[in-house]
## 1
Amino acid sequence: MKKLKNKVLFIFLVTVFINTICIAQESVIEDFVTSKTTQEGKEYPQVNSEGRVRVRISAPEAKKVQLDIGGVKYDLSKDGNGVWIGESAPQDEGFHYYQLNIDGASVPDPGSLYFFGAGRWGSGIEVPAKDQDFYALKNVPHGEVREHIYFSKVNNSTRRCFVYTPPEYNENTSEKYPVLYLQHGGGENETGWSNQGHANLILDNLLAEGKAKPFIIVMDNGTWRMPKKSNSKPQEEGVKRTWPPQGWADGFKNTLIKDIIPMVEANYRTFSDASNRAMAGLSMGGMQTRVITLDRPDLFSSVGMFSGGSISLEDLKKSPDFKEKVKLLFISYGSRELENPRQSSWGDPKENTQALKDSGMNAHFHVSQLTAHEWQSWRRAFKEFATLVFK
Amino acid sequence: MKKLKNKVLFIFLVTVFINTICIAQESVIEDFVTSKTTQEGKEYPQVNSEGRVRVRISAPEAKKVQLDIGGVKYDLSKDGNGVWIGESAPQDEGFHYYQLNIDGASVPDPGSLYFFGAGRWGSGIEVPAKDQDFYALKNVPHGEVREHIYFSKVNNSTRRCFVYTPPEYNENTSEKYPVLYLQHGGGENETGWSNQGHANLILDNLLAEGKAKPFIIVMDNGTWRMPKKSNSKPQEEGVKRTWPPQGWADGFKNTLIKDIIPMVEANYRTFSDASNRAMAGLSMGGMQTRVITLDRPDLFSSVGMFSGGSISLEDLKKSPDFKEKVKLLFISYGSRELENPRQSSWGDPKENTQALKDSGMNAHFHVSQLTAHEWQSWRRAFKEFATLVFK
């Protein structure tokens, strides 16, 4: 009898639990509006105040349509007219890549703007953030983002970068400016920092409030490929295999030092000493910043690594000039990254940065609250970094 | 007996005819390669030497997948792995918008780059042209395309345009330049002339060959909306309804004259007299050029209309200064447009232009061979116009 009672109680509790889930799933707040990343004139995608993303697409003959965002696929449902609609669970504030799946085909949402990330041009959605004002398009003086095409001797090819010049650049024609070399992450390209990151608007807004010094930003393409395996030279015995592999950042380092920096300093009114040169990057771009500035601290006085590792006392031993030459070291992460740290060979970033600070370096550790390895973390990091650099 | 013979002959001929069609359809030349507009790292879309466009997409659960290009939908066929593949009939040389249809859903091809046209960001494909060299990316000095954000008093909003500055602009810092205001077509925007049109590369290449004078190009957004119907003011009796409606170009005219031109002349090193100011546009942008320059010939000395109507002796009567002030009038069409002329209230463009020439104007009529109302016609027109303007 007791057993049966327990069983009934168990079934009852399970039922309540399942119902609760269902009710929780259904209680979607109906205040959806188009996003900043919805194409002009299109009604969808939309976002609500919980951060849910709702998409809609007409696909009368389709059997199954899904919204694929944040690593989860959400089934849409079809109305009588063959139009599919549905929404995701609440997403973090900020920008996210996503796609639609129509009967097994992964395609961009025809209603969204497109961004280069995850190795492809595809859909992105902006979930409004409480602090979105700092990267909003406002009626303030604006700098220009210039598409600059140049020939790279290192790569024997024509390349392009984007160069931000501050609002006053066209006016103060005798003034020179410091330069930040700002790199995107893996699977992204030279368009990321302005399209997704709004680095130009962030700096425009900081400058309008007098919170940053004007500087030029150079955004180039740091994509690298695995070096081809040499058949003639077998793997040396005893050499530890690491990831990223030895020399992975050499290609971009050479392009940056031999082509990009000289090209920028020849074409723009820049100061060309290390005290007016900075490098920063996100994720892979942060790791490139790490490798390149540890190798050439004579070239850069400010260093920013956003979700891209950190620098330890051990690193400083191998790069003895770094501590003296680098006047600003800025390390940042999204709080969700720190909750679920990836395995890293560089140690704990907060502890590392504190150790450098204790040793006398001007080192900063920044955390973006409630964001992950995504653009909102990097927008916030860039904003903080921009208020500190070249001062 | 004779009847039967005829019937047999008829069936025989029909069979031969159908077979011929099938064979013709099947004789696809297998020399497909990725297009310049295929995303880096993607294998499809591809184009062959006939100008056929081949697309491929994995959609295992789909019942029907089509390639929708040039107003025709081509069925794709599915292999054993759920991958759909197929190609179009040969397309004209140059750039075309297209999309995929998956079980009734119209979506961008995940393998292509995206362009703004036909009122949306979507897929585009480049079919190699025999004369593609003139808009190719080469190792020559390159100008910059600058995203310029500004506040428009006329619209009480923040807008953006793209400004091309010639290669020498950053070097010859005391030099001033003439300015061309260059407008896109209906359903396109300020990105069209550089993304689809390659106006920057065309001028870079002409300058490298000494075939054009360096000038600045301003590409803004000329999209207009139907003015709201006034309830208080009924349609005047006897007023002929025309398309485009009376006053349709006033919005952009005001923005151009009151906001854009002053902004450009304040921010760039420009000459600011009419002899160093030109306006041109394609399709709707050509029609805007027509209306605006006929109304204000005091502001522009060179006028280009690409697939956007023409100017008649009758027009000159209503704009008495036009003939004297405008030193270059350039009218162009794709040959396929002239084969199938749209109904126009402006008369035959070739005859109109010849009449102006006969009356003493420096008027040019250009035809792009074997192209329609598409970008290849406008690239060629822009190239010709660029060699004539500001000389």
## 2
Amino acid sequence: DVTLINVFEVPAGQEQRAIAAWEEARDFLKTQPGYVTTTLHQAVTPDARFALINVATWTSAEAFAEATRRMREAGVFPAIEGLKINPALYRVVRGDESGTPEQD
Amino acid sequence: DVTLINVFEVPAGQEQRAIAAWEEARDFLKTQPGYVTTTLHQAVTPDARFALINVATWTSAEAFAEATRRMREAGVFPAIEGLKINPALYRVVRGDESGTPEQD
């Protein structure tokens, strides 16, 4: 599996609209091959720079790329003035244990 | 529990140094009351804006604040020229299921 982390910069006052837009995208993406799970986090720290961060799991980078290509084609994710998204794929490189890196 | 997500902006070529600095901080923080677990993610998407993202769990915001205060006092986290960190606490607001928000 691969981890998709999408870091959102949300203009003031637009959090609920951004969450609603995220829900539309999730409802589309979860029907796509390779989708595993997703979790949307909202900042509780006041004036955090990134108000929303999504952490999702997909079976492969290709499956994620194909699903987002289809989403763009379907025009599902409504544009929100000033909303910046930073989706990228990640792998786990360190955990709780000292000295034994996962892989480098 | 609370989720700490720390989004790192890492200057080019400094990823290994940033990971080493992160390990020093982890080795200190995991001895502190309230620490639960942590996972460091490294971007596999080429030139991702955020090269490293840490997702950790603490029993409370207060425990996290106290641990990081002690870490600063102990001077554990070496400064790396140009490294920007964006630590904030988050809560989960949406998951896989449509229509039943966790809490708003």
## 3
Amino acid sequence: DYATLDHDRLARRGLAEAVLCDGKTVEHLHGIAGELAARESRTLFTRVREDQVAVLLEQLPGAAYDPVARLVAWPGEPPEPTGGLVVVVAAGTSDLPVAREAALTARHLGRETRTIADVGVAGLHRILGRLEVLREARAIVVAAGMDGALPGVVAGLVTAPVIAVPTSVGYGAAFGGLAPLLTMLNACAPGVAVVNIDNGYGAGHMAAQIAAPV
Amino acid sequence: DYATLDHDRLARRGLAEAVLCDGKTVEHLHGIAGELAARESRTLFTRVREDQVAVLLEQLPGAAYDPVARLVAWPGEPPEPTGGLVVVVAAGTSDLPVAREAALTARHLGRETRTIADVGVAGLHRILGRLEVLREARAIVVAAGMDGALPGVVAGLVTAPVIAVPTSVGYGAAFGGLAPLLTMLNACAPGVAVVNIDNGYGAGHMAAQIAAPV
Amino acid sequence: DYATLDHDRLARRGLAEAVLCDGKTVEHLHGIAGELAARESRTLFTRVREDQVAVLLEQLPGAAYDPVARLVAWPGEPPEPTGGLVVVVAAGTSDLPVAREAALTARHLGRETRTIADVGVAGLHRILGRLEVLREARAIVVAAGMDGALPGVVAGLVTAPVIAVPTSVGYGAAFGGLAPLLTMLNACAPGVAVVNIDNGYGAGHMAAQIAAPV
Amino acid sequence: DYATLDHDRLARRGLAEAVLCDGKTVEHLHGIAGELAARESRTLFTRVREDQVAVLLEQLPGAAYDPVARLVAWPGEPPEPTGGLVVVVAAGTSDLPVAREAALTARHLGRETRTIADVGVAGLHRILGRLEVLREARAIVVAAGMDGALPGVVAGLVTAPVIAVPTSVGYGAAFGGLAPLLTMLNACAPGVAVVNIDNGYGAGHMAAQIAAPV
Amino acid sequence: DYATLDHDRLARRGLAEAVLCDGKTVEHLHGIAGELAARESRTLFTRVREDQVAVLLEQLPGAAYDPVARLVAWPGEPPEPTGGLVVVVAAGTSDLPVAREAALTARHLGRETRTIADVGVAGLHRILGRLEVLREARAIVVAAGMDGALPGVVAGLVTAPVIAVPTSVGYGAAFGGLAPLLTMLNACAPGVAVVNIDNGYGAGHMAAQIAAPV
Amino acid sequence: DYATLDHDRLARRGLAEAVLCDGKTVEHLHGIAGELAARESRTLFTRVREDQVAVLLEQLPGAAYDPVARLVAWPGEPPEPTGGLVVVVAAGTSDLPVAREAALTARHLGRETRTIADVGVAGLHRILGRLEVLREARAIVVAAGMDGALPGVVAGLVTAPVIAVPTSVGYGAAFGGLAPLLTMLNACAPGVAVVNIDNGYGAGHMAAQIAAPV
Amino acid sequence: DYATLDHDRLARRGLAEAVLCDGKTVEHLHGIAGELAARESRTLFTRVREDQVAVLLEQLPGAAYDPVARLVAWPGEPPEPTGGLVVVVAAGTSDLPVAREAALTARHLGRETRTIADVGVAGLHRILGRLEVLREARAIVVAAGMDGALPGVVAGLVTAPVIAVPTSVGYGAAFGGLAPLLTMLNACAPGVAVVNIDNGYGAGHMAAQIAAPV
Amino acid sequence: DYATLDHDRLARRGLAEAVLCDGKTVEHLHGIAGELAARESRTLFTRVREDQVAVLLEQLPGAAYDPVARLVAWPGEPPEPTGGLVVVVAAGTSDLPVAREAALTARHLGRETRTIADVGVAGLHRILGRLEVLREARAIVVAAGMDGALPGVVAGLVTAPVIAVPTSVGYGAAFGGLAPLLTMLNACAPGVAVVNIDNGYGAGHMAAQIAAPV
Ligand SMILES: Nc1ncnc2c1ncn2[C@@H]1O[C@H](COP(=O)(O)O)[C@@H](O)[C@H]1O
Ligand SMILES: Nc1ncnc2c1ncn2[C@@H]1O[C@H](COP(=O)(O)O)[C@@H](O)[C@H]1O
Ligand SMILES: Nc1ncnc2c1ncn2[C@@H]1O[C@H](COP(=O)(O)O)[C@@H](O)[C@H]1O
Ligand SMILES: Nc1ncnc2c1ncn2[C@@H]1O[C@H](COP(=O)(O)O)[C@@H](O)[C@H]1O
Ligand SMILES: [Mg+2]
Ligand SMILES: [Mg+2]
Ligand SMILES: [Mg+2]
Ligand SMILES: [Mg+2]
Ligand SMILES: [Mg+2]
Ligand SMILES: [Mg+2]
Ligand SMILES: [Mg+2]
Ligand SMILES: [Mg+2]
């Protein structure tokens, strides 16, 4: 009576269910994980709080927990990769948790991924030095906080579509990610679409869908 | 000295240049169109003001003007379609100009397109009655104003990625498209990424990139 | 000298007083509860902080405390139900505390209630599978965070008026409940009216008034 | 191909379709009105622009146009009233267009209505002098701009639920209706729910649903 | 080198210096209090953090600390009252800390004060029952959170000017005091001017200036 | 039925009624002015639109119209001044319409007034050169747009309370008066209270109340 | 009595007075220009409305009017250049009016200037092709709308300080220049400081001060 | 793979790299500091968290840590000063941490600096008493919270350009620094440019660039 799991999602959408853990009680997660384990449904648990990890790992034998990305994947082993390459870019070192959430999501949904870090626009030679791998991608995720300028710059250099993830990295007039969000929505280069602030999961999911028809 | 056209874009990005006309003087557009005509570069002119149409059509023989989408395409004839299908959905009749800009953009960038109109969530049977065509799409664009709820509902029903375009349709607390923009960024269903308010061009471009590798 | 209780409210409005506890000192609550106990006035205490529970239960023998809804009801036993049915819907599991505050409020104000959980628009079949109970309602409360799309979808399916409660569930561009608040104010389906973010009390009160003339 | 009318709404919801005219072309309205006339569906046309009036009146013989409320009702004659009384209150003279839209909507959906004007809180004796009629209501609509204080004051005096409509009346920090919207959402008296800024239609619809089960 | 005290203020403005303590280190406050003690300047210390109280009381013998108002006054004894009466009104019990800061400030600046609590607009009879004392005032301070409606209602009933203080009491769309701030700026009754959210000090200062020429 | 004039205001508040004309129809103003003329009530008509002037002057013989302040006063002759001096300061030349509305309001409510213009903080010697007249005031109104810094500077120099009026003068990040509004609410010098953006009427009314007990 | 010109500014600040014309009446400008002409003070008139041009040119013989920058300079001939070079960059063709206002301001305050246009980040080779001239600058002004990414990119490539001017070019979530304003404030590369939206005058003034000590 | 340090920055920009520490893990900082130590690159570490200090001081022998400014400089000894003087002004005592970050940054980038504290506009004589040192500066940094009025006042008195830093000092409608940010962007005096809220580093960097060509 507290959860109506979307067991039908795999059939309807081709990609498995995910559970957003942050606002749930440990008791509710216990029940949800148990029900999914019983049905053997491949599932991602995102934004896992520290006090929730134990119950997930216990209910779901073989699950894998990534503390940087705050992600529990079950089963822990991702499927054999299919489709095109997903490249994930973190503008700064501090954007890595969001980038990692995106990369792991895409990987567990069946794509091969590559990650590039700390190549923000303050030193352009850094991103220009990675054009080769960027041009191999079928879909690119770019996570950036503060000015959020990198996704537009990347989109202007490649053929692949760019999923931009604003992060809450920054302070003051970054307003918790509002500044990079607006920058990305106004990117001068076409080929940029935006997901919610810090939503690495959503970016990785979208990139996985783009990089291979499901 | 007033424009540095990106003639290299087709080579670099695989898709042609576009010119955002709204803020430009007629004199500047005259020069820009002339230069593009001389180079025979396939180009879209977006957000064309009424006073700018004549100079574009005159400088670019064979161009096509769509007054609803406020778009001039040159050449007027789109290329032979390749890649997957792009389905464009307008939540309400008033969202049609934005939807049309998206559809024409995707069409002129080389995709086949289908458009569905006035199937907002106030009467769910309308969108549920179109599942067949939605499920044929390799990429879906959904334009919606006011509550902006439709893209999330569509994403929950299909396998294709959804590009959501908030529109400025509505009044009061729609705040010029801010309300549907936030709704779309917070869509509960994964597989939704968002472009700027009223940016049919950006949505169509992104959908074209998704529906066929370039 | 710190409180002027509205003892006249039952006479004037037909429904009892409520005390918003969050910002009050334990000392003030001690006095307020004592005064109400002396007058034997049926009262709800909302948004009760953990450090306030003891003094309330001590001053008001027979009171009932619900930790999920953060509500103390006195007397603990609700009145015999009259009027129509109030159905309370929680879009996600995380919206349950707000939904429960609404349901308990309506129940203690004299209505019969039913609660449905985790039926958000990402998997439409879930809400479509509950149409029967929704159509029995004289008033419906829908609590939803993130995209806040569910109230408009529900309103489009039923004859009863819908009271929408945005919740602060979500992150990033949910902006603490602002996103679902705006969505609900812009609901495309008529028959939706909105209360404050996380205001389960207000929603339950309104639903109780609608479901039976007082 | 530009409109998918919700002919099923009367069956599903018990109340007829409405058409929001503001963002539609005259050509589209011509077609929509024609289709509705052919089906003899009772319909309200709201936020009608002046250039749209003629085509509506021509396509819908017997329709009634109210220029203050910007409403076309078809048929022009409202149904015989059923259910309880709807009282509509305008805080100031300038709020009358929104109040009138609410009153006409409720009337055409089948309720009896009464309207009270210019009884804002700057002179409390004005609203206190109307308690008798307010206490006859089964549902009350209060339209107010600027400080938006009146709905909370009214709710504190009566048993009926109050639908509050913020209006864009005011200037400066009224921010186009944002100020009264926030006031109403934070009303200290329970029994207030809020619709969109200037949304007289939504308020009247909700009041009609409350004042009689449909 | 960290503070340039405004010792000239009493001469220039007729009212003594005040020190906003919140953002200062204990070391800095130690120095500031010492310097003021040496000069025997009457001073108010506002928004005092708990860890700052000891150093103030130690440096300023005879100072008085009020933990509710978070105020240290030195000397602790206020001057003999002169000028007209200042009435301070708290809309709810939770607004008392701000109201008390206002009352103590006015008192220490030399005015007689009276305080009324919990007379918000949800039960109008409460404020209407205090008209007598309100009409004795030469200046009125009204502190209110949530809907912030009380100052406008009071102003409509009296001849004295009203200083409105929005408080951060409330939740959700109260947005930390933004909602009552906007309400007060848009008060329909003239005779209301507004100070910063939770700024009891500023309100009391202004009221003291109004109630007696300095 | 469209207006409930507050004829009691003079008795209750000591100052006459005012009518905010902007949002009213010419027909309604005709009726309102007629009713006031019949009762011989001293009244101010504020924010008068150009198309409303004629009907006011016709209905109210002897009324005076000031096109800069957009004010009609009736009777046109202000009363003999009583109480203290009101000084009105305009930070820039462009703030003069608002300053004039304040000065005329205070004058028609019975105070003597003096106006100083274009003495903003960019050239401090200008305001420092007017200290003499500022120090004669019992109440000061300061109207300023853009940075809104002048009221705080003035308050720091005088004993009289300052009513600050933010104006919509400026562009870009002035956001229609929001920037000076926030500046004024955060004024470092106590003795500043704020009215709505461009609300010269409210500022003048408040100053008149301060400068003489009513 | 409507203007207090800052004739002392040249002495105090080393740079001449400027008059912001937008909000002033033609009559006031007539007087101001006359007074300045009489004193032979070098002055810039910014944001000149079309109806103001004639009176300025008539009162100030030899003045120069630039319709793109909306600037009148008097005398029309700029002084002999001194100090370092100011380079002004316009991200897009539509940013040219703001860039031109900056360039003319710096030129009339005594600096040599160079302007580069349409070198936004969507095609990086464009700005990278201008490094030579950028590296000659002692101060750089960059005007950009939409994503506002260019100033940070430029700052990362040069030694000169960058003054960033957000422009109101763009639509939707550009929010009238708010988006590029936030981007620029959050620029990842240090060496960027920001002026008001569309404030070419302020940017040019600042650049002139930087490029030569005054 | 978590950091791509900009070792080229000194060559390209003439000023050394800086590392923003706040969002980085201690592990990442360990690696970054080690790499920089190995290359002997002069570096500033800004916004250092307390748990990060030890690893920095250990990896970078001879580094200096300033706990007020939260800055680690390596090497700890700043270079011999060159170029003009940088004067740093703190409006209040609470703005000192930001002012100190600016002063230390400019000093470590090679400029001589002077700091003035607590000279806000509430007591103008304080800043007017420091004109001599202000007029010696080649660049001025002004840090201010709350009303943010001081930078504009300073700019109006001197010839040097002013870099304004809004601080998050204040409460309520200061909105975390938004209020002073807007004030500074709207400064009436030209010669003011603004950096991010609390960004002392950026202000000091910009001032260092202005005060000496690099
Ligand atoms: N309607 C549009 N919305 C957003 N971006 C656009 C639009 N039209 C063109 N663009 C992009 O904006 C860039 C700048 O346009 P322009 O100002 O013409 O140089 C173009 O290169 C396009 O990629
Ligand atoms: N959780 C709540 N949210 C909104 N309003 C409430 C809540 N609880 C109580 N109230 C109302 O707020 C009024 C003021 O509460 P109090 O501060 O206790 O006097 C009460 O009379 C209730 O009608
Ligand atoms: N320019 C104004 N700004 C703010 N309030 C006003 C203004 N003019 C009149 N008022 C007040 O607004 C109230 C409502 O105005 P009305 O809509 O005319 O009934 C009047 O009674 C005045 O006290
Ligand atoms: N406190 C700060 N505020 C703003 N930008 C900074 C700050 N500290 C360093 N930076 C800049 O931010 C860039 C990115 O920092 P990082 O994340 O360390 O790569 C650095 O290269 C600096 O130029
Ligand atoms: Mg779920
Ligand atoms: Mg271009
Ligand atoms: Mg109470
Ligand atoms: Mg429809
Ligand atoms: Mg001080
Ligand atoms: Mg009135
Ligand atoms: Mg001037
Ligand atoms: Mg770095």
